[in-house]
Specification:
The complex is a heterodimer.
Chain A (H helix, E strand, L loop, with lengths): L1 H17 L7 E3 H10 L14 E3 L13
Parallel strand pairs in A: 1-2
Chain B lengths: L1 H11 L23 E8 L8 E12 L14 E8 L8 E11 L3 E4 L6 E4 L18 E11 L6 E4 L1 E2 L7 E2 L13 H6 L3 E4 L5 E10 L6 H5 L21 E10 H4 L5 E16 L12 E13 L4 H4 L3 H9 L9 H5 L3 H9 L10 H9 L16 E4 L33 H9 L44 H6 L1
Antiparallel strand pairs in B: 1-2, 2-13, 3-4, 3-14, 4-7, 5-6, 7-8, 7-10, 9-11, 11-12, 12-13, 14-15, 14-16
Helix pairs in contact in B: 1-9
The chains are: A mainly alpha, B alpha+beta.
Chain lengths: 68, 483
C-alpha cells in the first residue's frame, strides 16, 4: 500500500513538474485525466486532488483520442 | 442486565431518523444509480435457514414504477460492494464486489412496404411479453458478475463467484417490473433469478439482485417539513409516503460460518464507487458499443451506508459527501456529530419538548461506535460506524418480531443488525430524545415519539429475498392517481 501511495504522489509531482509548477501550481487537466484513464486499475488508491489545480483548454478536441 | 442492554441499545439507536439514506448528501443526488438507500443484516428467519445471515443493500432510490422506457438499470461503470468486518478492527475482512453489464440486443422492425423497406431500431425496452424462459422480446439484457475479496478490498485476494449448479460466473438480473402486459407473472419471473452460489470455502449461499418494492416506510414529506406531524400521535396514523416507490436490491444469504472469525459479532456496510476520471463524449457513436463517456483511474467511493439515518440526519451538510467517501476506520473525524447531535435540539425548538442535557454524549459515541456491551460489541473493537450483528442471538420468527427491536425486548432486531421489518424511525426518535436516559438528563425521554407511519414484519416476506415484488408500472395508474 505504501508503494502505491508513493506511485500516486510521484504521478502528481510529475504532472506539476511537466507544467512548470511547484506546490500550489497549475497542472494540465488534459494530461491528468488521460493519465488517470491510462492507469485504470482495480487495486490502486485514487489520487488526492485537494491541492491540485487543473487547467483545461477550451478545445474539447483534446480528448478525442479517448473515443477512437 | 436487561436494563443495561436496553439502555445500550437505545443509545446505539440515538441516530436521528426519517428517511434512511435516500438522496442524503449533495453529491449523491447527482449519482442516483450509486445511491445506497438502506442496508440490512440479520440472521435469516426463513424456516430452515437459521444458520445463515442475509445481507441486503438497496440502491437507486424513489423509483417510480412507471419510469420507462429505460427504467432503472444499475451503473455498468460503477463498483458496488458489501463489506464485512469479522474481527472488530474497523477494516473489511470479506468484501463482495458486484459489476454490472448491459447488452443491447438492438431489436429492430422492418418498416415500409416491400421494395421500400428499412430495418429500424426500436425505442423501447421490450417489444413483447417477457418471462424467465423467453427473453427474445427484451432489448437490453442486464447481467452482473461477483467477486469475493478476502482482506483489503482493493489489494486483497479476489475469488470469482460462480453459480453452484451451473458453474457460470455471469448472472442475469431481471428487468424491472414494467407491467403485467410485458411480464404477466413478475413474481415468478424474478424468482427465477435467485441463484445458489458457490463460496470459496466450499459452502453455498444464495443471491438475488433486482428491483423490489422499497421496504422502508416513512412519513417523508412531513418529516422534512420541520416534522409537520404530531410526533406523539397515532403511530399508524399516516400513510407511507414512499409506498409507491421501488428500489434495486443486492441480496446475499451467506452461512454464518463463512462470515465469522473467532467472534460471533460481525460488522457490515455497503459502498459504491466510480472511476476517478470521466470524460463526456461530444459525439457518441450510434453503434451497440455506445461510448457515452470514457472513464478510468482508480475507484473513488461516493456512497457509504450501514446503520440507517447516519448521513441523513446526523452528519452536517458540509461533511455529508466526505462521509460518503470515508471508511469506517477513519470515523473519529465525525465524532462531534454523535457526541453533540443536533436533532434533539431541533425537536426541542419545534415541539417544546426538552432535549437531553447530557453533554458530551460520550456514552452515545462509545455505544454507537463499538456496539453494545453484552449484545453486539466485538470481543476486541476499534470504534467505527457500521451495522453490528451478533450472530449467536437466536432468530425470532417473522410473526413474533417486535417492530421496536431491542428497545421492544427483541434482541434479534435493530440495533443488533437490522431486519427489514424493524421500525428504525420510531426507535430512533424515541432514543434520540432519551427514552432510556435518566429523567434528570432527559425529562422528555418517556414520550412515545413516532413519525406516525408504522413499520413491522407484516410488510416483509418470510422467505428469501424477503423484500417484496416491486410495484408494476402498469396497470397501476388509477391507484396512483387515487392517492
Amino acid at each position: 500500500m505504501k508503494r502505491i501511495h508513493i506511485l500516486a504522489a510521484s504521478f502528481v509531482l510529475l504532472l506539476a513538474a511537466a507544467c512548470g509548477g511547484g506546490g500550489g501550481g497549475t497542472a494540465s487537466g488534459v494530461s491528468f485525466v488521460k493519465g488517470q484513464i491510462a492507469r485504470t486499475s482495480e487495486t490502486t488508491d485514487p489520487v488526492q486532488i485537494n491541492d491540485l489545480n487543473l487547467a483545461f483548454p477550451d478545445d474539447t478536441a483534446q480528448f478525442d483520442s479517448l473515443f477512437q | 442486565m436487561i436494563k443495561t442492554l436496553l439502555a445500550g441499545a437505545a443509545l446505539c439507536a440515538c441516530l436521528p431518523a426519517f428517511a434512511s439514506s435516500h438522496r442524503e448528501a449533495p453529491n449523491i443526488t447527482k449519482l442516483p444509480k450509486v445511491d445506497a438507500t438502506d442496508f440490512y443484516m440479520f440472521r435469516s428467519y426463513e424456516p430452515g435457514r437459521e444458520d445463515f445471515v442475509t445481507i441486503v443493500a438497496n440502491y437507486l432510490p424513489l423509483q417510480a414504477p412507471y419510469g420507462g422506457p429505460n427504467y432503472f438499470a444499475l451503473d455498468p461503470d460503477a463498483l458496488y460492494e458489501i463489506h464485512v468486518d469479522n474481527d472488530g478492527d474497523a477494516v473489511e475482512d470479506v468484501t463482495f464486489q458486484f459489476r454490472f453489464q448491459n447488452e443491447l440486443q438492438d431489436l429492430a422492425l422492418d418498416i415500409g412496404p416491400v421494395g421500400n423497406q428499412k430495418r429500424v431500431s426500436v425505442p423501447l425496452l421490450n417489444i413483447g411479453g417477457i418471462s424467465a424462459g423467453a427473453l427474445d422480446n427484451l432489448n437490453v439484457h442486464e447481467t452482473y458478475s461477483v467477486r469475493c475479496v478476502f482482506g483489503d478490498r482493493r489489494t486483497g485476494m479476489p475469488v470469482t463467484i460462480a453459480n453452484s449448479l451451473t458453474t457460470e460466473t455471469t448472472f442475469a438480473k431481471p428487468v424491472d417490473n414494467i407491467g403485467t402486459k410485458s411480464i404477466a407473472d413478475y413474481a415468478a419471473y424474478a424468482a427465477a433469478h435467485v441463484y445458489s452460489i458457490a463460496l470459496p470455502d466450499g459452502s453455498t449461499g444464495r443471491m438475488f439482485v433486482g428491483q423490489r418494492k422499497d421496504p422502508f416506510q416513512v412519513n417523508l414529506g412531513e418529516a422534512f417539513d420541520l416534522v409537520n406531524l404530531n410526533p406523539v400521535g397515532d403511530p399508524a396514523g399516516k400513510p407511507n409516503t414512499i409506498d409507491d416507490a421501488n428500489v434495486t436490491s443486492i441480496v446475499l444469504e451467506l452461512p454464518i460460518a463463512f462470515l465469522v472469525g473467532n467472534d460471533p459479532v460481525i460488522g457490515g456496510w455497503t459502498s459504491a464507487s466510480i472511476r476517478q476520471a470521466r470524460v463526456a463524449n461530444p459525439a457518441p457513436l450510434s453503434a451497440v458499443a455506445n461510448k457515452v463517456t470514457v472513464e478510468g483511474g482508480a475507484w473513488v467511493q461516493v456512497s457509504r451506508l450501514s446503520m440507517p439515518l447516519v448521513n441523513e440526519l446526523v452528519i452536517g451538510i458540509k461533511d455529508k459527501d466526505r462521509f460518503n467517501a470515508s471508511e469506517p476506520k477513519d470515523d473519529a473525524q465525525f465524532a462531534d456529530y454523535v457526541t453533540h447531535p443536533t436533532l434533539p435540539a431541533l425537536l426541542e425548538v419545534l415541539f417544546g419538548v426538552t432535549a437531553p442535557t447530557q453533554f458530551p454524549r460520550s456514552d452515545l459515541q462509545a455505544i454507537f461506535l463499538t456496539g453494545v456491551t453484552g449484545l453486539n460489541q466485538p470481543l476486541t473493537v476499534q470504534g467505527a460506524e457500521m451495522l453490528r450483528l451478533n450472530t449467536s442471538v437466536a432468530v425470532v420468527p417473522s410473526a413474533m418480531q417486535n417492530r421496536l427491536g431491542v428497545v421492544g425486548g427483541d434482541q434479534a432486531g435493530y440495533p443488533n443488525g437490522r431486519r427489514p421489518g424493524d421500525d428504525v424511525v420510531d426507535i430512533s426518535l424515541r432514543a434520540v430524545m432519551g427514552v432510556l436516559l435518566d429523567n434528570s438528563v432527559a425529562p422528555s425521554g418517556q414520550l412515545p415519539y413516532t413519525d406516525q407511519t408504522i413499520m413491522d414484519s407484516s410488510f416483509i416476506d418470510t422467505t428469501f429475498p424477503y423484500l417484496r415484488t416491486p410495484i408494476g408500472g402498469s396497470p397501476n395508474l388509477e391507484a396512483l392517481v387515487a392517492r
